[in-house]
Amino acid sequence: MKSESSTLPMPAASRKRILRVLLFSLLLDLISFTFILPLFPRLLEFYRGPEGDRDSHDGRTTLLNNVLRGLNAYKHAFARPINDRYDVVLLGGALGSLFSFLQAIAAPVIGRLSDRYGRRKALLWCMTGNLLSVALWVAATDFRTFLASRVVGGLSEGNVQIATEIAADVSDERSRGSTMALIGACFSIAFTVGPALGAALSTATIVAANPFATTAAVSFGLIAIETAYLYLYLPETRVFSSSTPANRGANDSVQAPKSSSDRSGRRRGSRSNGHFLLNLTHFTFLLFFSGLEFSLPFLTYDLFSYGSKQSGRLLGVVGLIASILQGSVVRRLDPLRAVQAGVVSCALSFFVLVRLETEATLYFAATLLAVTSATVVTGLKSLASFEATQDERGGKLGNHRSWGQLGRSLGPVIFCSLYWWAGRQFAYRVGGTGMLAVSALVLFALVSPAPAPGRAGSSSSSSSSSSS
């Protein structure tokens, strides 16, 4: 095996091949993941029906009814009445927060495992967990089994995280932002297409005991295809040193773009953006942004009496604009500039929503949110990837994702509490003020990473290949 200092940059053909495999598999994964999003209201109503009847008729208390009692106690803690139609929305939000919290726990572990044993092996482990999660959903005739599927999924959904690590492995510093933007584009495409497919599949009932088994079965099929595809075509991109304990089979790995400055010359602390600063930015941004996201169904119902169809159209517009931006503009932007544009856009959207009166203004705010969706998380991932050598990249990016998921798990609870306690305008003013603080952090504390020594020549060639 070659020494670290003699490792050559990855050939452009190998890099393109790996990216094709990575992006296609990630698109399958995210489309499968988004199937369930528009189904939450109907799905939870389905479980609430028979389990609520069982609770009232035979006196047995079900897990779902215990959860609903807790949510009702939360609702009744506010002086402002909360419409009962929000019960299912609150339950869906609670499950989403649980999923994010479990990911916050699992992400650092998955990252360290990918550093120790390789990206490919860790990804296939995650795929095994994903298969188990969706199989439980297929068999979920009661809420307890459905909840188990979400718990397993939350602890094993490391695909996006490892895809980010692989993208960093196979890209140099000048092409890093454009490569991460392609991952972001997969998100936008999947969140535009996946929910519509999931809703369409839910109209076909093949198992009376679980009317959503058709959607779940198709989701399982996509994950199975993805797993087989990754097993057959994805090489190892983590290059192991001779002293790495997991250097078993490392000769099968593909050499990632590295130089002596990347592996040994780049010392910890040699960059201006520390991991704590980047993680704090990720946490605070998603704390406010996720609260805004979760509050939109309440806002649009209160002001415009939106149902699921109108809300779906609004979110579809956001996804479409975000995917266009990521495929055209964002991939050409410096990652820091992308983050700056996104957080400022998000702050503006908060203050627009404070004075929201018309649907035209709502769609203007949604356009601002599309800019945010297309830029911030993608840019922060790129900046975080610059701060770690390949030996520690999985762990560092896992920690970065963990902070973000923790913010995503807390944001809906905190923001919606403000919404019901003090009203829409106060909640969005607080959110906008918080996002202004995040903007100040991004504008004045973060800096664009300087190129590593000896990268100028190889970067330009790799950058041109990435845009082809």
Features:
468 residues, mainly alpha, 17 helices, globular, disordered N terminus
Question: How do the helices and strands line up, and which of them pair or pack?
Answer:
Elements: H1 12-34, H2 40-58, H3 63-76, H4 86-117, H5 119-138, H6 143-156, H7 159-170, H8 176-201, H9 213-233, H10 260-265, H11 275-304, H12 308-328, H13 335-354, H14 359-386, H15 393-422, H16 424-444, H17 456-466
Describe this structure in words.
The two termini are 31 Å apart. The chain is an all-alpha fold and 468 residues long. The chain is globular and about 60 Å long. The protein has helices spanning 12-34, 40-58, 63-76, 86-117, 119-138, 143-156, 159-170, 176-201, 213-233, 260-265, 275-304, 308-328, 335-354, 359-386, 393-422, 424-444, 456-466. Residues 1-8, 246-252, 255-269 and 454-468 have low confidence and may be disordered. The protein is built from 17 helices and no strands.
| Low confidence ranges | 1-8, 246-252, 255-269, 454-468
Structural class: mainly alpha
- Helicity, in percent? over 70%
Average pLDDT, all residues: 83
Name the assembly state: single chain
What proportion of the residues form beta strands (DSSP E)? under 5%
How does the overall form come out from the CA principal axes?
globular
* Cα-to-Cα separation, first versus last residue: 31 Å
Q: What's the total helix number?
A: 17
Order of helices and strands: HHHHHHHHHHHHHHHHH
How many β-strand stretches? 0
Largest beta-sheet details: none
Our Rg estimate from Cα atoms comes to 23 Å
